Amino acid sequence: MDLKTYKKDFKDFINAAFGILLYGLCARGNFHKRSDIDICIVKLENDEIIRRINKRLGGKYDVKVFNSVDERMVLHRRWMHEKRAIIGEIGSL
User: Which fold has domain 3-87?
Assistant: First the structure.
């Protein structure tokens, strides 16, 4: 799977979260056929969003939701906004 696929899969949810991040083996470029695809969603607007994500993408991703961010992550808000990891411009990742 590639970044264009992630971007397409999560595009409808970008405005409902503080950030959507790709992490783990995929983000490091060490993806294997048996690897899961790790996604971190920070601060969803409401619980209905995660239900919609699960309904649409059903098990395709290992999604973790964080409803709060610690101080270090708040300091990186601009970085998270600019990257919006999977939704951001592919050339900027």
Answer: Beta Polymerase; domain 2 (3.30.460)
